[in-house]
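Appendix B. One record, verbatim.
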Amino acid sequence: MDDLDIELDEMELVAAAAGYYYYNSITTQPCRSLSPTKSSFMAEVLNGQDDLCREMFRMDKHVFHKLCGIFRQRGMLRDTAGVMIEEQFAIFLNIVGHNERNRVIQERFQHSGETISRHFNNVLKAIKSLSREFLEPPPLTTPPEILRSNRFYPYFKDCIGVIDAMHIPAHVPAKDQSRFRNKKGVLTQNVLAACTLDLQFIFIYPGWEGSVADSRILKAVLDDPDQNFPQIPEGKYYLVDTGYLNMEGFIAPFEGVRYHLHEYRGAHQLPRNAKELFNHRHSSLSNAMWKSFNVLKERFPILKLAPQYGFHTQRDIVIAACVLHNHIRREEKNDWLFESVGARVEELRDFDDQPDPQLAFQIQDQMAASLRDSITTAMWNDFYNDWEEW
C-alpha cells in the first residue's frame, strides 16, 4: 500500500508539471511559429514580389526602408523586444492603407489589440512630427510643368501652386453632427490643402466642419499667423477655383464662364472667347490638386470612410497621409499610383462653386483683376493667331 501511494504521488507531480509547461507555452509564445523580431507576414512581404509590398504597405520596398531608417536614426521610434520598427510601421500602413480593424491586424501580425493600438499611435505621432520637414514651401522658380508647355508659358510663369479643399468622411458625436454635415448631408471634415504642380503637398489644414465654405477656411488661415501658411512672395500666386475670391496671391477663374474640363468635351470643345480660354487652361493646371487628392485617397482608403477614432486622431491621420504622400513622391517618381492617376483626365467631383456669401460682397482686389485680365488678353491674342494647341 505504501508503494502504491508513492507511485500515485509521482504521477500527480508529473501531471502537474506537464500542465504547468503547457500553460506556460501557450501564454508566453505567439500563436504561430514566429521569430522574436519578425513575423512570417513581414518576412513574406519584404522578401516577396515587389507588387506584394506595394499592395500591403502601399509603397515600394526601398521607400518603406528609407522611412524606417529615418525613424530609427532620429530615435522617433524604437525597436522593442517583440516588435521591430519595420513591423510597427507596417501595422500602421495596414490600418490606413486598407482601413482594417484592430482585430484583423491582430490576426495578421499576431499581437494583442493593445500592442497594435500602441504602435499605431506611436507611428502616427512620429509621422506627424515630420510634417514641417516634408510639407515644404514651393520653389520660387517657374515650375517645369509650366515651362515645358506653350499653353501655360509664359502666361502662368508666376504660379507656384494650387489651393483647394477636400471633404473626408468624419466620425463625430451626435451633438456636433449638424456642424459637420456638408451640402450633400454627409458628415465630413473639410480639409484645406495647397500643392505644387508636381503633386506634392505644401500645406494642409484638416479638421474644419463640413458645413464651412472653402473660402472661409482660407480666410481664417490667412488671418492667423499661427497657422504658418507659407508667405507668398510679391508677384507670385496660387491658382484657386470658383469657390474662392480673386485677390492678390490667389488667381481664380472668371465667374459665370464654363470652367471644369468636362465642360469642354463633345461638340463644344474649342473656347469661344478669351475668358473661356483662360478658364480652360486655369482648370488644366489646377487639375494637379485633383490628382493629388485622388492619389492620396487611392493609397490610403481610410480617408474614404469615417474611421472609428477620436476626431483629433482622424485629423492627424490626414496630416500623416500627406507626409507619406510627399515622401513617396520624392523617393519614387515612377510610383504606380502617381503614374496611373497622371494618365487620367479629370473626373466629375464635388465643387464648391460659390465663395462664402458673407465674403462675396467684398470688392475684388484690383491688382489681381488686372493681372488676370493681362494674362487673358495675351493668351487669347496668341491663340487667335496660332491655335495649333489650345
